[in-house]
Specification:
The structure holds two protein chains of two kinds. Chain A is an all-alpha fold. Chain A has one domain: MetI-like (MetI-like fold, Orthogonal Bundle), CATH 1.10.3720. Helices cover 78% and strands 0% of the residues of chain A. Chain B is an alpha/beta fold. Helix content of chain B is 35%, strand content 19%. Chain B has 16 helices and 13 strands. A six-stranded mixed sheet of chain B has the order 6-7-8-3-9-10, sandwiched between helices. Chain B has a four-stranded antiparallel sheet with strand order 2-1-4-5, with helices on one face. Chain B is globular and about 65 Å long.
């Protein structure tokens, strides 16, 4: 770092406002796609496990393996196959969502009290009606809990994909590291953190809105 | 919140909510259930049970835990399958019916109630009508009628979540939900066990009135012999190993238990319990006119609708060992002495069997059930 270089040069931020906006949209798009696809995939796998109990261990084992691969190594392994593309980034990101999401969706279904399940079946709900009318709505708090962890994790992980030409705010972090220039590094990191906090807050609000019953109490 | 503001009196005169249904006949034919525990010599949960439940009656299965009463109940809506034997509803084997469609025709209430916590009271009550795809306005009318029927103000209760109700209110909503699609058969597994004794007694009385008004067949499980006597038109006492020990009316069971097990189970005070099945008015009408030697003015007074047990308590405190019985407007119905009560207990069980709860021409209120239970409500 050059001497007398300030930690943050505010002029740089103003000059790059457009690019910061672009990187924000990029960051949000990368995250939303990863969490969206990851959730759809996890939900389908959770339904499969719900129907075929014996698939639980192999599926969770596989998702666990994916979860343990270091992200850098995963991207390095994928680049020869899918190139320096957004697809590569998304494959990596999605694979990190699966373990937590599958587990929390299954836990959400399992959080339905036994007597509620018993009466639902006893009154003539089909397995499908039990799922959509009882297990999914009652599982929302647990499932959203998993979504929050995953969303915050992925927003952080998106910055790593800067190494393969994506990255959202990660681009600024990489730029700052390469040029020993602290302003973009700090801007990239700070905005990534703010985005994570904002997304987490929005999910909390969404959960409150979809579960008015959970507020409970004599009212 | 003032509890009385949110409740309306049970409105049995409601023409729509209280529409009678044709109760179903239920028959168990040599039914056994053996749970697969991996051992060849496991004790059966249910052993060769044969039982016929006439339409429109309340059959109470009572016994200690592990006697197979809940198993018996769950066979009817096919939550369990019998190992041997058949369960018939209106002569048709349930094994041949689609379990989902079968269950929608049977009301089901369990001890923990199992209201859906994410649905409002109205949505909970509407569960089976929605599964049956009733039109929305018919469902709305039915829900309001039922809430009024169980004594909850529809406007107050409709949009509340179960977590916002008291235990007794949740219990009522559970019963309303089970009754929603006018089922000919109701299965109830210790539905009142989790509420406190005072609320329980009130719920039991309300339930008997509801059952009389709607007349579905009810199969009711409890471990509480007092509840069985209070509610049942028939009581089936079961013993460990899933065997039926005795089946009879509450009066028969108390007057002539089949064996030591049943006698012990119904309790050493079974004579006193029998008295709760008779009204003071019925005894006064049956007995001789007041003895001229008795100074009526010095006798304690009980209402005709009071139980014979209350009459006995009053008679025991008076020097003449008798009590004066008066009707609702204070007119004399007759006198009951402890001798008359002893004579009534010595009579065969039939004397204690239910009799129509209609005021007789003489002004005598007779019959157990409605009269005695109404009396309890007002105290």
């Amino acid at each position: 770092m050059t001497p007398h270089e300030p930690l943050v040069r505010w002029g740089w931020i103003l000059d790059h406002a457009d690019e910061i906006w672009q990187r924000l949209l990029d960051h949000v798009a990368l995250t939303a796609l990863a969490v969206g696809v990851g959730f759809a995939l996890s939900f389908a796998l959770a339904l499969l496990i719900r129907r075929h109990r014996r698939l639980r261990d192999p599926i969770l084992w596989l998702a666990g393996i994916l979860y343990t691969i270091p992200s850098l190594a995963l991207f390095a392994l994928l680049v020869p196959v899918t190139g320096l593309t957004r697809l590569t980034a998304e494959i990596g990101l999605v694979s990190y969502t699966l373990l937590i999401l599958i587990r929390s969706i299954l836990d959400g279904f399992a959080s339905v009290p036994a007597e509620v399940r018993e009466t639902a079946i006893g009154m003539g709900c089909t397995p499908g009606q039990l799922l959509w009318r009882i297990e999914v709505p009652l599982g929302v708090p647990v499932i959203v809990g998993g979504l929050r962890v995953v969303t915050v994790t992925i927003i952080g992980l998106v910055t790593v994909t800067a190494l393969i030409g994506e990255g959202g705010f990660g681009y600024f972090i990489l730029l700052g590291m390469q040029r020993f220039f602290s302003t973009p590094l700090i801007v990239g990191a700070a905005l990534s953190i703010l985005l994570a906090i904002l997304a987490d807050g929005l999910l909390v609000l969404a959960q409150r809105w979809t579960t008015p019953w959970a507020r409970g109490g004599q009212g | 919140m003032n509890p009385s503001s949110r409740r309306t009196a049970p409105a049995l005169e409601s023409p729509r909510g209280a529409a009678k249904v044709r109760g179903a006949a239920v028959e168990f034919q040599h039914v056994s259930v053996q749970f697969d525990s991996g051992q060849s010599s496991s004790v059966p949960a249910l052993n060769d049970l044969s039982l016929t439940i006439p339409p429109g009656t309340i059959c109470v299965l009572v016994g200690p835990s592990g006697c197979g009463k809940t198993t018996t109940l769950r066979l009817v809506n096919r939550l369990l399958q019998p190992t041997r034997g058949r369960v018939l509803i209106d002569g048709r084997d349930v094994a041949a019916m689609d379990p989902v469609l079968l269950r929608r025709r049977i009301g089901y209430v369990i001890q923990q109630i199992g209201l859906f916590p994410h649905q409002t009271v109205a949505q909970n009550v509407a569960t089976v009508p929605r599964l049956l795809q009733w039109p929305a306005d018919r469902i709305r009318r039915r829900v309001d009628d039922l809430l009024a029927l169980i004594g909850l103000d529809p406007a107050w209760a409709r949009d509340r979540y179960p977590a916002q109700l008291s235990g007794g209110e949740r219990q009522r909503v559970g019963v309303a939900r089970a009754l929603a699609a006018e089922p000919p058969l109701l299965l109830m597994d210790e539905p009142f066990a989790a509420v406190d004794p005072i609320v329980r007694e009130h719920l039991q009385d309300e339930f008997v009135r509801l059952q009389r008004a709607l007349s579905p067949t009810v199969l009711f499980v409890t471990h509480d012999v007092d509840e069985a006597i209070r509610l049942g038109t028939h009581v089936a006492v079961m013993r460990e190993g899933g065997r039926l020990a005795q089946l009879g009316s509450p009066g028969e069971l108390l007057a002539s238990p089949a064996d030591d097990y049943v006698a012990r189970f119904v309790g050493a005070d079974r004579a006193l319990k029998r008295l709760t099945l008779m009204t003071a008015g019925a005894l006064a009408c049956a007995g001789p006119p007041p003895d001229a030697s008795m100074s009526v003015g010095e006798l304690p007074t009980v209402r005709a609708a009071a139980t014979a047990r209350d009459a006995l308590a009053a008679a025991l405190t008076s020097p003449a060992r008798g009590t004066l019985v008066v009707d609702g407007s204070g007119r004399r119905v007759g006198v009951v002495t402890i001798h008359a009560i002893a004579a009534a207990l010595a009579a065969p069980a039939a004397a204690a069997a239910p009799v129509p709860a209609e005021p007789a021409a003489s002004g005598c209120l007779v019959g157990r059930g409605a009269a005695a239970k109404d009396h309890r409500d007002t105290t």
